[in-house]
Fold this protein.
Amino acid sequence: MKASTLLRIASVITFLYFAGHTLGYPWTPTVGERETAIVESMKSHQMDVMGSMRSFWDFYIGFGLAVSGFMLPVSVALWQIASLAKRGVSGIRPLIMTFFIAFVVNTIFDIQFFFIIPIVMAAAISILLGIAFFLTPANVRQLDPVAS
């Protein structure tokens, strides 16, 4: 399989990861009294954080939205890198390696803190990026700025 194909598959999985994460808002299963009490406690206690009054709930929602906010452009960037790989553009291996490392770290965090769906998605993306890295030649032609 070609690196460009693997990168496109990684892009699609990343987009699905974004969509699933975003649709999971507010990411808290408040199905019982204990869960509801915890969420309410997170919302009720405000603290001064560098001059802004925030709650643990603010951080929880803010970080969740930040993850969604970054996953969408990452999926787009992987699609664009796939297009460059297909054209044989030089210099994309470091980009692929950067995203590979990011998704390996993401996989580790998912294993430590979350559940099977994000673990499988992050691991699959990591594997695809790792293989794409090795399938992408180190020395290929330079991009012709006039032709683009």
